[in-house]
Specification:
Chain lengths: ~210, ~120
Amino acid sequence: MELTVNKGLAWLKTINEKIQEKKDYLTDLDQAIGDGDHGINMARGFQEVEKKVEANDYADVSDLLKDAAMTLMSKVGGASGPLFGTAFLKLSMSLKEKDPVDYPSFSTAVGAAAEGIKQRGKAGQGEKTMVDVWVPMAEYLQNAQEFKPDELETKAKSAMEATKEISAKRGRAAYLGDRSIGHLDPGSVSSYYIFAALAETLQERK
Amino acid sequence: MVNVGVVLISHSPKIVEGIKEIIRQVNKDVPIALAGGTDEGEIGTNIDKIITAIEEADSGKGVLLFFDIGSAKMNAEMAVEMSEHEQVKIAEAPLVEGAYVAAVEAGIGKSMEEILQTLHKNF
Ligand SMILES: Nc1ncnc2c1ncn2[C@@H]1O[C@H](COP(=O)(O)OP(=O)(O)OP(=O)(O)O)[C@@H](O)[C@H]1O
Ligand SMILES: [Mg+2]
């Protein structure tokens, strides 16, 4: 795997594509166990990210992801803004001076991002938040020897689906407690799109 | 007199406007800055708005932040980390009562530490 500035740009654009396409679905998920703004928040935020990164030139992947992070923090709103903002900021910091980015550096960076989300949200695994996708993905990447896009996508999907069976302990859904069981966590679904977009972008044939 | 400033953070612009009205009935001097809603005035919270409010409320004696539900505290924490102002603290107290108590104390010249102690005792 090799993540260049161009691939990074393609990754961000693919995330935006997916989020715009699933905007209403994400909002429906959030309506069930939250305040129903997740799709709107994410669509607004990633639209702004695309606008921002299109208008600039980047020396390396780290710079690119930093701009994405700052845009997410100020434009997404909600809890997911500071959380995804922190995730991308940690990716950026961890990938400083690494260009192009290779597989070991990338898995370390995802580890830092997962840790960042946990700290920012004061959340642990199993509390029905996006942590339930980021932590298993960081572990998976660290244990896998090489980058396998299809496997990455499958892992992210099953981590996301597993949030359905658990009870929320953090975020808006926590107010519902066990009534949140049976519903997917919206932030985990959008985290899945982020990893799915990565897998798509880094497919060899692309 | 220089007073400790108060920043009100809520998902709703109307909530913070209302609290400010309640406080202004009893005190006209304490700096109160509002960070209600998103940058488009919708329901939510926004880091940039909070940072701007911290700047507005700081007259040299420090600033206390009050927040409501969900992401408000998380965004307040990020804003404190990102803001260049030194004496900025997040108050762990209910938004309406906490901000009211803090403003009254700030109005009689109490320091940040003193106000935080009062809040700690009361809530
Ligand atoms: N404390 C937390 N730690 C980790 N993730 C969290 C936390 N709180 C919320 N989340 C994630 O954020 C998602 C919700 O994002 P959304 O954009 O809808 O914000 P929100 O909860 O509506 O914010 P707000 O509290 O401002 O209304 C959840 O599905 C969950 O994955
Ligand atoms: Mg929401």
